[in-house]
């Protein structure tokens, strides 16, 4: 797995996959896609990066411990559910905000925040597992 | 079609149970996975099989155009698959660690927690 | 793309009224537990903060659950359905007296445990995710107690399972791996069986909402529903370690550190048996009647075999594991006697088991720490050196066996009353021998548990030296507790034992609550009404 071709092409694949994962996550509200599948794509990118350049470089590049990212994901998913407390509705009720940007209307919502939370949870957990398995006998 | 799937579910669960009866941890793990897939297929079948389209609301409409497939079993199965995957990976790592440190893949020889030569209970107060 | 004003009439599927913020007490415990676990996962590297954050989160959970319990006692079961949906759409959370009460007991036990581990662990050491996993476990337990949806119950079971997997292997000793494998495989198999019965339930009834199941189940094929109930009994029986499928519990509960096994013993099996009670008594009462002989046999076998196992066992925490199984037998005996007294006694017993079993394992942890041994034959001579610990263990042993006036006596009294009433012995008519056998088994269980417990007590505290040598001498091999261990470990355990003793001395309110809870379980109309479904009386 350490050929020149793979090492040269890996950064390109990784960056494309990361951008694509964000696209898949955001389109997920009304079309196939979503935070779960987006997070899986991003975690696969991290796994490929780890194969090509070694676990240490990946950990340095992410800067944050992947499991902390997962924790942050759960946290903001919970926060997105708590927001409906202020609108007099039950937990997890969606709140929509339509931003009028002149040419187009940008719909923002709490399900989107929830989905980003899911994205981060999946990304964090699967990356942590992948990096631990790629590293030599490391603990998660 | 339901009958075919019911037979397949039965085969999956029978195969899974057979593997689970093995002494080898890896076979047991495979058995659990096959068993879990059988269960997922059962939920899918229980949600009624249709040849209708995927449950996606077309752009510009507020409700689906005509009959659609039942989305609930799909959501249930997705949840079950994710959980099953997490459990499987944990148990796989556990079995590997046990192989490393207990040197045992065979559950018969795995007697650290329950020693085979445990002494008789004391007879007096 | 969604538009601001949908053209579809949603009034049949969604709530149009405003939900008051006070209704949120039913979901806040879960949200706090999950978000606390997430926060602790982020704070893993920060030493010193983790225990404080964990305790604050659990204190917040306790506050919410006290409010929830007060509300349930006042107005009956309360419910909230996520995302403004109307049941049976959407995931419902519903608390009745038993659910809210057990959730409160579970979080109180967790708070005491968090204080207890401060004595054991290096200060502020949370880098292995211990605190995060404890909160995740509490989230799973609370969710299982409060949910009103069968599939959601499965999800909380798995949350609980994955957290307990993490906790049982912390430390990574070979014995823990061994225990974790048996625990992991069999519990995962149990949840697979649960999922299997969920799939069949959905296929037969088309719904997984608990109140909706109560309404729809009578019209389904009784034979098929009995099969589903049998599968549920197997799945929850495995989770609860009821007799024929109990082997994993004594094989695994003694392997992790004492604090972790205390948490497991207090919470996990109780969730299993509570789910069994909810599924068989509330959701599928007709199938429960069909399964009654089976339930009674399971209860009798668990009640008799568990204390015999404890007598035969020399490893202290393994012997306590058999006490846990005996308690499960008592609860199942209540499920097999579906009267107000029977179900009330079963619910009361779950509360007693949550508190007493945790306390027993905490004391066992202190004893193991003092002697450095896990085998009761090699302990001994603690009585003279540490009288307080011997008193704590003695009180808990009496409470577990059900000696008046301790906590375990009262639920057993209710169960005996239910058994005698059902046996028809007092009326002088036809005698129901199965109920009579349950009564005998309950009494035999108390005697056998007392024998097993007092013998453990004598071996651990009195004997100093090899078997046959009778003495009350102070053992010279003890490693005295440090100040920190005495303050946190012994202090927390004493508080929990004090709760057990006080609850045993003043059981009147608990009797009232048990009767109300059992009433809602036997006649679920108030429970159904809480969901807002037709068919229940408001």
UniProtKB/TrEMBL annotation, chain A:
InterPro entries on file: CPA3_antiporter_subunitB, MnhB
Bilayer topology: Multi-pass membrane protein
Intracellular or extracellular location(s): Cell membrane
One GO term describing the cellular component: plasma membrane
Keywords: Cell membrane, Membrane, Transmembrane, Transmembrane helix
Record-annotated membrane-spanning stretches: 12-29, 35-55, 67-92, 112-133
One Pfam family from the record: MnhB
Ranges of residues in domain Na+/H+ antiporter MnhB subunit-related protein: 5-127
UniProt similarity note: Belongs to the CPA3 antiporters (TC 2.A.63) subunit B family.
Name of the protein in question: Monovalent cation/H+ antiporter subunit B
Lineage: Bacteria, Pseudomonadati, Pseudomonadota, Alphaproteobacteria, Hyphomicrobiales
Automatic annotation (TrEMBL), chain B:
Record Gene3D superfamilies: 1.10.287.3510
Keywords: Cell membrane, Membrane, Transmembrane, Transmembrane helix
Superkingdom to which the source organism belongs: Bacteria
Subcellular localization: Cell membrane
Keyword DNA-binding recorded: no
Family annotation (InterPro entries): CPA3_antiporter_subunitC (IPR050601), NUOK/Mnh_C1-like (IPR039428)
Cellular component terms per the entry's GO annotation: plasma membrane
Pfam family, one: Oxidored_q2
Transmembrane segments: 6-21, 28-47, 75-96
Chief location category: membrane
Bilayer topology annotation: Multi-pass membrane protein
NCBIfam families registered for this protein in UniProt: PRK12658.1
PANTHER family recorded: ANTIPORTER SUBUNIT MNHC2-RELATED (PTHR34583:SF2)
Entry's family note: Belongs to the CPA3 antiporters (TC 2.A.63) subunit C family.
Protein name per the record: Monovalent cation/H+ antiporter subunit C
Species assigned in the record: Devosia limi DSM 17137
TrEMBL record, chain C:
Family stated for the protein in its record: Belongs to the CPA3 antiporters (TC 2.A.63) subunit D family.
Boundaries of every NADH:quinone oxidoreductase/Mrp antiporter transmembrane domain copy: 148-422
A GO term, aspect molecular function: NADH dehydrogenase (ubiquinone) activity
Protein name: Multicomponent Na+:H+ antiporter subunit D
Gene Ontology terms: biological process: ATP synthesis coupled electron transport
Main location: membrane
Membrane topology per record: Multi-pass membrane protein
Keyword terms: Cell membrane, Membrane, Transmembrane, Transmembrane helix
Membrane-spanning segments: 24-43, 50-70, 90-117, 129-147, 153-172, 184-205, 225-249, 261-281, 293-312, 319-340, 346-367, 388-410, 430-453, 488-506
Signal sequence segment: none
InterPro entries per record: CPA3_Na-H_Antiporter_D, NADH_UbQ_OxRdtase, ND/Mrp_TM
Subcellular location: Cell membrane; Membrane
């Amino acid at each position: 797995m350490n050929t020149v071709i793979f090492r040269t092409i890996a950064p390109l694949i990784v960056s494309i996959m990361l951008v694509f994962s964000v696209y898949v996550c955001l389109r997920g509200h009304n079309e196939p896609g979503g935070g779960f599948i987006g997070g899986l794509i991003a975690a696969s990118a991290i796994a490929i990066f780890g194969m090509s350049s070694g676990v240490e470089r990946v950990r340095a590049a992410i800067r944050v411990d992947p499991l902390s990212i997962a924790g942050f994901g759960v946290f903001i998913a919970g926060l997105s559910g708590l927001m409906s407390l202020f609108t007099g509705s039950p937990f997890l009720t969606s709140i929509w905000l339509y931003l009028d940007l002149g040419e187009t209307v940008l719909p923002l919502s709490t399900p989107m925040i929830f989905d980003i939370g899911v994205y981060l949870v999946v990304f964090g957990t699967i990356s942590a597992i992948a990096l631990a398995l790629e590293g030599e006998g490391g603990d998660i | 079609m339901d009958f075919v799937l019911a037979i397949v579910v039965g085969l999956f669960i029978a195969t899974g149970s057979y593997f689970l009866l093995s002494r080898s941890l890896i076979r047991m793990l495979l058995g659990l996975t096959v068993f879990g897939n059988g269960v997922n297929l059962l939920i899918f079948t229980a949600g009624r099989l249709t040849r209708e389209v995927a449950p996606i609301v077309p752009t510009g409409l507020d409700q689906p155009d005509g009959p659609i497939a039942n989305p609930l079993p799909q959501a249930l199965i997705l949840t079950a698959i994710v959980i099953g995957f997490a459990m499987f990976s944990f148990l796989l790592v556990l079995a590997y660690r046990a192989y490393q440190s207990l040197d045992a893949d065979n559950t018969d020889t795995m007697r650290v927690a329950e020693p085979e030569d445990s002494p008789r209970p004391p007879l007096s107060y | 793309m969604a538009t601001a004003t949908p053209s579809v009439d949603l009034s049949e599927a969604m709530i149009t009224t405003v939900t008051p913020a006070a209704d949120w007490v039913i979901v806040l415990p879960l949200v706090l537990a999950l978000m606390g676990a997430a926060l602790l996962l982020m704070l893993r590297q920060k030493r010193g903060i983790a225990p404080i954050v964990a305790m604050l989160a659990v204190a917040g959970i306790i506050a919410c659950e006290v409010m929830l319990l007060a509300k349930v006692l006042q107005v009956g079961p309360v419910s909230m359905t996520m995302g403004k949906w109307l049941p049976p759409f959407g995931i419902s959370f519903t608390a009745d007296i038993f659910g809210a009460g057990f959730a409160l007991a579970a979080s109180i036990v967790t708070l005491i445990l968090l204080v207890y581990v401060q004595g054991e662990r290096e200060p502020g050491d949370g880098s292995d995710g211990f605190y995060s996993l404890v909160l995740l476990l509490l989230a799973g337990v609370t969710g299982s107690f409060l949910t009103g949806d069968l599939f959601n119950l499965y999800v909380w079971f798995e949350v609980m399972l994955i957290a307990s997997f993490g906790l049982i292997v912390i430390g990574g000793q070979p014995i823990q791996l061994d225990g974790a494998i048996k625990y992991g495989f069999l519990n995962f198999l149990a949840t697979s069986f649960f999922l299997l019965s969920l799939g069949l339930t959905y296929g037969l009834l088309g719904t997984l909402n608990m109140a909706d199941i109560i309404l729809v189940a009578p019209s389904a094929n009784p034979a098929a529903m009995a099969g589903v109930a049998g599968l549920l009994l197997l799945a929850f029986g495995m989770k609860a370690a009821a007799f024929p499928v109990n082997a994993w519990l004594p094989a695994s509960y003694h392997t992790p550190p004492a604090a972790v096994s205390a948490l497991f013993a207090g919470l996990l099996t109780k969730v299993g048996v509570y789910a069994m009670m909810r599924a068989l008594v509330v959701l599928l009462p007709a199938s429960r009647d069909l399964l009654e002989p089976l339930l009674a046999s399971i209860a009798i076998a668990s009640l008799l075999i568990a204390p015999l196992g404890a007598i035969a066992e020399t490893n202290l925490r393994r012997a306590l594991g058999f006490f846990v199984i005996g308690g499960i037998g008592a609860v199942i005996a209540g499920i097999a006697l579906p009267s107000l007294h029977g179900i009330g006694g079963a619910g009361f017993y779950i509360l007693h088991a949550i508190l007493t079993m945790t306390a027993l394992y905490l004391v066992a942890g202190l004893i193991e720490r003092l002697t450095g041994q896990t085998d009761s034959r090699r302990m001994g001579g603690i009585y003279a050196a540490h009288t307080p610990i011997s008193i704590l263990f003695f009180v808990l042993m009496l409470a577990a066996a059900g000696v008046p006036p301790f906590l375990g006596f009262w639920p057993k009294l209710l169960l005996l009353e239910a058994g005698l009433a059902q046996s028809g012995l007092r009326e002088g008519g036809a005698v129901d021998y199965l109920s009579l056998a349950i009564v005998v088994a309950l009494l035999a269980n108390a005697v056998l548990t007392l024998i097993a417990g007092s013998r453990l007590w004598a071996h651990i505290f009195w004997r100093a030296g090899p078997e046959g040598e009778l003495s009350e001498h102070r053992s010279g091999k003890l490693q005295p507790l440090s100040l920190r261990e005495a303050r946190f470990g012994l202090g927390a355990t004493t508080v929990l034992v004090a709760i057990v003793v006080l609850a045993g001395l003043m059981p009147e309110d608990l009797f009232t609550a048990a009767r109300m809870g059992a009433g809602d379980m036997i006649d679920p109309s108030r429970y159904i009404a809480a969901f807002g479904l037709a068919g229940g009386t408001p």
